[in-house]
Amino acid sequence: MENSSPTSAAPSRTLATPPRVARKDDTVPSPTLIDVKGLDFYYGAKQALFDINIAIPDRRVTAFIGPSGCGKSTLLRCLNRMNDLIDGTAVKRGEIKIRDIDIYGPAVDPIELRKRVGMVFQKSNPFPKSIYENIIYGLRIQGVKSKTKLDEVVEKSLRGAALWDEVKDRLHESGLGLSGGQQQRLCIARTIAVEPEVILMDEPCSALDPIATAKVEELIHELKKQFTIIIVTHSMQQAARCSDRTAFFYMGKLIEFDETHNIFMNPKNAQTEAYVSGRFG
Amino acid sequence: MKRYFDSELETFRSDLLRMGEVAVRQVRDALQALVTGDVKLAERVIAADDELDDLEKAIDTEAIRYMNLRAPVATELRLVIVGMKASHDLERVGDEATNIAKRAIRLAGEPPLKPYVDIPRMATISIEMLRAALDCFIHADSAKAIEVVKRDLEVDAINRQLYRELSSYMVEQPGTITRALELMFISKGLERIADHATNIAEETVFLSDAQDIRHEQSLKKSGLTS
Amino acid sequence: MTAPSHFYTSRHSFQRRTEGTIVWAFRLATYVILLCGVFVIGNICLKGLPTVTGSFRSLKQFPYVTNTFLFEAPESLYIFKHEGVKREMGDTEYRAFREAETARATAEGRPVPEFKAQSYVYAAGGIWPCIVGTVLLVVGAMTIALLLGVASAIFLSEYARDSAFVRFIRLAILNLAGVPSIVFGLFGFAMFVLYFDWNVSLMSGWFTLAFMVLPVVITASEEALKAVPKGFREGSLALGATKWQTIRKNVLPFALPGILTSSILGIARVAGETAPIMFTAAYVVRDKLPWEVAKFGDFFFQGVMALPYHIYVVSSKIPQNAYTQRVQYGTAFVFLGLVALIAGSSILLRNKLRGRYQW
Q: When comparing pLDDT for A44 and B95, which is higher?
């Protein structure tokens, strides 16, 4: 009678072949570029951000999600000090360090900061000038006059924004003559023309149709090779498609910050789970 | 419009196809080891099962990630779901092949009970079904897939016949019981492999036509061959 | 046969009749205004045109045609009979004629004819100095008003933080709009003529008129600046521009059409007001033209003749007769034409800018 138990032929359990799914570059850890520590932010007497601690990685896409009024746009606008333009706002505690320099420190000029931390707005706002003039606006205010340099920057930025082929024949026509998606890409081109380190995007696709949205998302995927991108979005599918890390905010607090796959697959916080599965409120 | 995550789906498909290739190879090699009594071949089959297990885990991980992050719809969604199920079926095929190989090792030292005719015949049909099912999957050919489903009854018939034969052997010559039992289990294994091939074919129909044709007895009966 | 009744038939014929009546009332109001405007302007044009066109004279040399009403100074009119023919002549012409006739009579040995003439002051000649004076006043006052007004509007709308003080400033500006123009004249007289010791001069007139028209300019400029979308400012600031760079490049050019529109209103007012310039800038008569000055500095501190003041003078300060009436209507006609010309060029400029800075 044969013993049906396995004989010496059974080898020890080893990984015969490594898993076929190639480890993506994006999940390789990246150093921190922006380090927010203990940030408290006030609109006048009302506190809008409570003890925010978040480390944004370099050359990755980070998404901020959360319900309306949770403070994600406020935090975004803190990163390039656009909140300074509103009366009565103040950072009462904590710091935001970009490359170890506290941007609310005394020696920091917000004008210089905004040249290195660019912003794309929800409602695309191309200036009512020609496409060419739009792109070189940032350079003109820095005093760049050389026409060859300006031409070069225009072509580079439009190629970078995946808009060159569509507009190369009409650079001197008004930027307002473009479609919504093209206008938003024009604004992105304008932002990257000054070669910032960080691009902040405040719901860039909320006013766009799905095809234009897809084009902008493809663009973001290309841009992250060169720039650190932070995108505020109401669309969770967009956060899932585009971002490498996602931060969930609620009522001015950071609830959870993790790799996007984990946030949507296995969030640690019950509120996060409720929000991403659409059961919030 | 091409999206940057299209490559993830391509990886998924190619992993599935690779798994299919490996599974088919495993069954073929296991039968070869049985018929020729090649113990070394059988041991290689047993060792290679790890590759199928890893592939199943990888495919499942990839599928879950794709569904989580890319929110697929329509064909993509069906592909991901079918892929997950098919990988399970293929992994089970691999396990059956491994079991056949283990039994082949045990049978190798002893003289064969009878010339191997039916078992290779079953194996041929099962392997053909598996290949055809995978082919249909690649080409999303639902018409051919339905043919695969119909052939399952052939294999069931051979299995029942072999069962009767081996039972009578065991009754007449009790000394052959151990070998006969091994052969019965091998036959059962091949019948299970054919069932898994049927499953894959049904999943292919779901992939290409979004129709669920599982558990349709009428379909199988209409393919009853003489 | 009545129409079949369904969901959408009209049920409220009373309201529709009321609507019809109201619309006709609105139409009537508009037409009444139109008629009045046509009547007034038509009257001036009809009576003033002959004075302007009738004073064309042809010469035997370049420029072959000249116009006395527009290009000569006011003179007295002399009506007299000579050799049985009634003639009317202006002062210079009369003197020349008298000399010529006397010389001719003496040469022919006839007795010197007697020249008895009735003179009407301001009834002959032209209004050239008035035109020059008005143009100077308008250009100067509008320049000052636009500079001060736009600067103030930029400060109020872009830089100043909302506080009780700023609201008070806005209230003060609005109140300024309601101040009667004679009060402005008195203010100008007290401040610029007496206190600053500028005397009756272009400078005093400029500043008085500028202050008079400032509220309109500031309010309209603020509206024009507010109308520029916030996105232009945000976008520019986000690229690292200073606030002034943003305003200069991205806000002000697009607000210019609106600002110029306000200036059109201002021009009409500045050109037409008599009370402010009565004490501060205008002379009844001045024989020197403004550019005939001893040194450059004197240009700003001289008084001028002005069209609205001249109309006032020929209408009320001198005895009325058929001859002065010609001059009155002629001046009024020229005045309307001048304002239309300045306003027209301002509109042209605004349209050109609108085309360039459209959004």
A: B95
Interchain proximity A264–B68, CB inside 8 Å? yes
CB contact, 8 Å: B11 with chain A?
yes
Cβ of B50 and A240 within 8 Å? no
Pairing of strands A89-98, A245-250: unpaired
Range of the domain at B170: 3-225
Model pTM? 0.81
- Which of B11, B46, B64 has the CB atom closest to A10's CB atom? B46
Residue C53 domain flag: no
Q: How far apart are the first and last CA of chain A?
A: 67
Q: Are residues C154 and C212 in the same domain?
A: yes
Strand bridging mode A228-232 / A61-65:
parallel
Same domain, C84 and C160: no
C-alpha distance from B6 to closest chain A C-alpha (Å): 12
The pLDDT of residue C344: 87
CB pair distance less than 8 Å for A14 and B50: yes
The residue among A66, A154, A76 whose CA lies nearest residue A118 is: A76
CA distance linking residue A150 with residue A132, whole number of Å: 9
Q: C300-321: per-residue pLDDT in tens?
A: 888 888 888 888 888 887 777 7
Closest chain A residue to the Cα of C245, Cα to Cα: A141
Read off the amino acid at residue B119: I
User: How does pLDDT run across B10-58, given as a tens digit for each residue?
Assistant: 999 999 999 999 999 999 999 999 999 999 999 999 999 999 999 999 9
CB-closest option in C161, C162, C245 to A141: C245
Chain A residues interacting with chain B (CB cutoff of 8 angstroms): 1-2, 6-7, 9-11, 13-22, 211, 214-215, 217-218, 221, 237, 240-241, 260-261, 264-265
- Residue ranges of chain C with per-residue pLDDT less than 70: 1-4, 63-65
Given CB atoms, is B224 within the 8 Å cutoff of chain A?
no
- Residues C333 and C217 both lie in one domain: yes
User: What's the CATH code of the domain at C296?
Assistant: 1.10.3720.10
pLDDT digits (tens, 9 = 90+) for A173-216: 998 989 999 999 999 999 999 999 999 999 999 989 999 999 99
For A257, phi and psi rounded to 5 degrees? -140, 115
How would you label A46-82 residue by residue, b for 16+ Cβ within 10 Å and e otherwise?
eebbeebebebbebbbbbbbbeeebbbbbbbbbbbbb
Do the domain assignments include residue C220? yes
Return the closest-CA partner of residue A225 out of A30, A31, A60: A60
DSSP state of A109: -
Q: Looking at the structure, tell me whether residues C268 and C326 fall in a common domain.
A: yes
Question: Among A158-167, B181-190, C78-87, which is the least confidently predicted range?
Answer: C78-87
Yes or no, beta carbons of C241 and A85 under 8 Å apart? no
**Per-residue tokens: A246:** 């996602």
Provide the number of structural domains found in chain B.
1
Question: Residue A16 has what pLDDT?
Answer: 41
CB distance from C113 to chain A under 8 Å?
Answer: no
The domain tally of chain C equals 2
Q: Which two tokens stand for residue B199?
A: 């499953």
Establish if A137 touches chain C: CB-CB under 8 angstroms: yes
Alpha carbon dihedral B87, B93, B95, B98, in 10-degree steps, equals -140
Has residue C30 been placed in a domain? no
In a domain, C37, yes or no: no
| CB-CB contact of B141 with B169 (8 Å) | no
Could A119 and C238 be called an inter-chain contact, meaning their C-beta atoms sit closer than 8 Å? yes
Is C159 part of the contact surface with chain A (CB cutoff 8 Å)? Answer: no
Chains that touch B (3 or more CB pairs under 8 A): A
Give the CATH number for residue B10.
Answer: 1.20.58.220
What pLDDT sits at residue A14?
A: 37
- Cross-chain residue pair B50–A10, CB shorter than 8 Å: no
Instruction: For residue B14, count CB atoms less than 10 angstroms from its CB and return exposed for 0-12, middle for 13-18, buried for 19 or more.
Output: exposed
